[in-house]
Amino acid sequence: MSEQKNFISIWFFIGVEVLIYGLMIMSSGIYEYIYPPKETTVYLAELHAPIWWGALLIVLGTTYVIVFRPKKSA
Amino acid sequence: MLVTHSLGLLLLASVPQKLLSLHPVDVAVIAVYFIAVLGIGFYLRRFSKSGVDFFLAGREMTAWIAGLSFLAANLGSLELMGWAGAAYQYGILATHWYWIGAIPAMLFLAIVMMPFYYISKTHSVPGFLQLRYGESARCLSAVSFAFMTVLMSGINMFAMALVMRVVLGWDLNFSIWVSSITVAIYVALGGLRSAIFNEVLQFVMIWLGALLIPILGLWEAGGWNGLVHKIGERMHGDYTHLWGPLSSFSGNPMGTHWTGIVFGLGFCVSFGYWTTDFLVVQRVLAAKDLRSARLAPIIGAAFKMAVPFIVILPGLLGLALLPDNLKLMPQDVAAATGGHSYNEVLPLMLARYCGPGLLGLGITALMAGFMSGMAGEVCAFSTVWTYDIYKAFINKDASDEHYVKMGRWCIILGVLISIGTAYLVMSFKSIMDYVQALFSFFIAPLFGTVVLGMLWKRATPKGGFWGLLAGTVSSIAMFVWVKIDPSALRYVALYSGAKDMAQNVYRALWCWLVCVIVTIVVSLMTKPKPESELVGLVYGCTELPSEGHLKLYQRPIFWAGVVAVVFLVLQVIFW
To answer: What is the pTM of this model?
Structure first.
């Protein structure tokens, strides 16, 4: 697909977006960890899902960005 | 296919209090998503100049891209919310719509039907009917498909806006205009390629946004066994087995029997939708070669088997874990009492586990589902209108550039008609049930017509046309019969207590049979096409490319076998 017309791979776009999401969500989770809200309606908040889910997204996004980054054509 | 069930319930909604409140980081997550989809559309505009580029994505898609897009076009937000609600209501029986109601048909499309679609070089399913049966069958199919697709798009749009109002308290007009203009821009710019690329992105977002619910839910419930135990404590009846409760009509909350699930759903409805609905088939036609086109539905099937994890499981978790004072109920009861409906189980579970950031991701998943579904609909509408109606009957000899321009305008027009339909539905909510039903009328008979055309060379143009017409008319007649006389359910669905879903699957079975019988009888009475005109269209007249030179693991049939085995194992595990 991408070889014939030199498209940037869709997986690269996905990697960038997932990476951005990972950074946003993990930052939000760390902020909540440092400044926990006085009251929360979220169940299992003690598991701090935004931190590890955000970290997972960062790893996933970074991997896709690196593997599918646009390469200079010969 | 599923939307048929969920929309009817959603549209009865009143204006309850919003379920969720967004934080600034959630709004930022949603904004990033909109920027991304528009950015992809603008980027791909330069690659969509010719008709093949615009309407068939240049026929350059890999099996993975085409396969994920094939699935994403079906995975709308109403699918997600509607089936999570159905799982809360009916238990694990709802999984049948993801497994037997999809997997065999997707594999059949890949192995049996795809070669004919692909080798014939058709650009659409009505286009295949024209090659096989002639203009009358194509005209009937194209007009009904274009009309119903654009109406469905409007109905989906309205239902999505309603979801956003229920979940987030957003204004209906805001949701309708912002989301539909976004879809119109990125599809009109990049055509099918832009729709497909965005569908793959949306597919990933749906998974990332929804996956935490079952993970955290199973953690809280104590795993699958804990979940089953908790449901058993709360509910009477069997909510956690797939086939056991289907031995009698009254033994399950759906009021159906295994024959309806196997033959009506698993055969007619499912095969009709997954093998002939151009909304999904168009994605596979964009594959770069025949092998990719055959692998794409197999990849789609593998992921389809996993979708119950993010859709059905949250419904079951809601059944087990939501507090007793948060009992969900039918939409009309919820509207009257101010309670929560079955359809709200997914947002409720999202709110249960997701704080700032994750909530935005979950809402993005719902929006991504809606937009992928709508993009698929307007794209399919544009192709069928341009090639099967405009080019076939109005302007036969225009340039390729002219048809691309027509396609772009059709997308804008399709979105505008959809918006008009959304407002129409807002004023006359009852029409929605009828439009939904109308759409389903064409699916099962169309499968009968297409499959006979592909597998039986004796099928004639007159047979194809009259079979399709008779199947469609008989389906409408059965629907009207039950509306006028509800006791007719005992004939149409074989059980007077059958619910809507059970009625739909049996109606599909009967109208498929009518279509097949009429096609066969009329064909035997009329003159067939010479075999020379059937090359590339019919089994027995077409030389299929050999895959003998490929290694075993490169062959589509091998992966279809793997998916089939996993499918069977899942049936046994959850029997």
So the answer is: 0.86
